[in-house]
From TrEMBL, chain A:
PANTHER family for this protein: EAP30 SUBUNIT OF ELL COMPLEX, VACUOLAR-SORTING PROTEIN SNF8
Record protein name field: Vacuolar-sorting protein SNF8
Organism the protein comes from: Mycena indigotica
Family: Belongs to the SNF8 family.
Biological process, per Gene Ontology: protein transport to vacuole involved in ubiquitin-dependent protein catabolic process via the multivesicular body sorting pathway
Domain of life the protein comes from: Eukaryota
GO cellular component, one term: ESCRT II complex
Pfam families documented for this protein: EAP30
TrEMBL record, chain B:
UniProt similarity note: Belongs to the VPS25 family.
Species of origin: Mycena indigotica
Any GO BP annotation: protein transport to vacuole involved in ubiquitin-dependent protein catabolic process via the multivesicular body sorting pathway
GO molecular function, one term: structural molecule activity
Lineage: Eukaryota, Fungi, Dikarya, Basidiomycota, Agaricomycotina
Listed name of the protein: ESCRT-II complex vps25 subunit
Protein origin, superkingdom: Eukaryota
Keyword Protein transport: yes
């Protein structure tokens, strides 16, 4: 552009600055509009999918599983959305976010019950729930889980958060009371990475050997809370509390 | 069929390493439970035992498939340098699966048709079905076609020990016979007596 030398040049420069500013805002406006349009299209597609497949998702367990897997593989949390309930929840009528989290908690607890006897460490539960929720699931906190478990209580499944003496938390999913001895055993086992033998309880808790042995055998045989190890180097037989061990699913 | 998913994952690893022209090789990935000491002891609680048995069956089949091992014997847990040592033992935590437990496991796998006792009539060694006999039948038939063996008589030895290694190299005779039996039912193979034993002839057939 030729620069004039007279006063009129100032006007011309200001004018062109204004035009450029206008053009730039027009461009970004167009981009925003474009994004909005894409988002709307995506949302409509999701909504259409949700409404057409609503019944299958709710009734057919296999389809629901496939749907959840699809969501998790593309990194979409089926419960997430702008509002608390989420698009999916709204479209599918599944209800509150909190209840949804509850369902996921139940899912994890039930699917791990076989191997941990219905007792799972809070960290492990959080890890598995986050895995279940996919990429966007990072915002689920311990507090969310505790609150969701409270909403589960009226169902009477026995879901409860147990706080051990060293303030670590366990989630119990069997309607069975832990007696005092078992709580003590869990606390010791947590410190030992899961391994526990009768002598530890005798030494630390001042129990008689019989009491320790009986409590441990009950945990193995009656409740399935422990696994037995008959090849222990130090005492021949050791017990392992599975809720204190880490597992791959 | 949970264990099949598991197998597929190992197959993926295998295929991947093949695809990369063996530039790199991914070893067998042991599951984390393999480093848990109680995994090597039989569990008295029925529910716990069922979980452990399932984990062991899956692991054994995946490893057999990975290493192309067909036979598993109770004694395999005793030798530190055997084919199975990597799975049946964990030297790092000083554990190995005890013979009594392995015997129980083998029986459980036979009950689920994941293995058959071989030879029949004892309970200390099995042939593992990391492919079901039906699947082996397809593999065998495809191999016979792709290597141009249709309508000629082959001995079992030519199948179990071919000059060019095939997926069927070292397949146990008992499993091979069962496989041929399946093909025979659909008219795709015929068992034939030859001079020094038995042989087989393959036909095109569609399997219907």
């Amino acid at each position: 552009m030729r620069r004039g030398v007279g006063l009129a040049a100032f006007d011309r420069q200001q004018q062109s600055n204004r035009s450029f500013a206008q053009l730039s805002s027009q461009l970004s406006q167009a981009q925003v509009d474009n994004l909005h349009a894409q988002l709307n299209q995506f949302r409509t597609a999701l909504a259409r999918f949700a409404t057409t497949h609503r019944d299958s998702i709710r009734k057919d367990a296999a389809f629901r599983h496939a749907f959840q897997q699809m969501c998790s593989s593309i990194g979409v949390d089926p419960l997430a959305g702008p509002r608390k309930g989420g698009w999916w929840a709204e479209m599918l009528g599944l209800g509150d976010w909190q209840y949804e989290l509850g369902v996921q908690i139940v899912d994890v607890c039930v699917s791990t019950r076989e191997r941990n006897g219905g007792l799972i460490e809070m960290d492990e539960l959080l890890r598995l729930v986050r895995k279940l929720r996919g990429v966007g699931g990072g915002q689920v906190t311990e507090e969310d889980v505790v609150r969701s478990i409270k909403t589960l209580q009226p169902l009477g499944g026995g879901y409860e958060v147990i706080v051990l003496s060293d303030s670590r938390k366990l989630v119990r999913s069997v309607p069975k009371e832990l007696d005092e001895d078992q709580a003590a055993i869990l606390a010791v086992a947590q410190q030992e990475g899961g391994r526990i033998v009768a002598d530890m309880l005798v030494a630390r808790k001042g129990w008689t050997h019989n009491r320790a042995k009986t409590a441990l055998d009950n945990m193995v045989l009656r409740d399935g809370l422990c696994w037995l190890d008959e090849q222990d180097e130090f005492s021949g037989t050791a017990y392992w509390v599975t809720s204190a061990m880490k597992w791959d699913v | 069929m949970k264990h099949l998913d598991f197998l597929e994952i190992y197959m993926l690893f295998f295929v991947k390493s093949e695809a990369a022209n063996k530039l790199y090789f991914i070893g067998f990935l042991l599951p984390s439970i393999h480093s848990a000491p109680p995994f090597f002891t039989q569990q008295p609680h029925p529910g716990t035992n069922a979980t452990a048995t399932e984990q062991w069956s899956t692991l054994i089949l995946a490893y057999a498939r990975y290493r192309k091992l067909f036979l598993l014997r109770v004694e395999d847990a005793e030798t530190a340098d055997g084919d199975w040592a990597e799975v049946l033992r964990n030297e790092r935590i000083n554990r190995k699966i005890l013979p009594s437990y392995l015997t129980t496991l083998l029986a459980a796998m036979v009950a689920k048709n994941l293995a058959v006792f071989e030879p029949a009539g004892q309970t200390r060694s099995v042939v593992l079905h990391w492919r079901l006999p039906d699947e082996w039948a397809e593999v065998l038939h495809t191999w016979a076609i792709s290597t141009g063996q249709l309508n000629t008589i082959m001995t079992f030895y030519e199948i179990t020990d071919p000059p060019v290694p095939s997926p069927l190299s070292n397949i146990p005779i008992s499993l091979l016979k069962k496989t041929i039996g399946i093909l025979a039912k659909t008219g795709r193979a015929q068992l034939i007596a030859v001079a020094d034993g038995e042989g087989v002839r393959f036909f095109q057939g569609t399997g219907r």
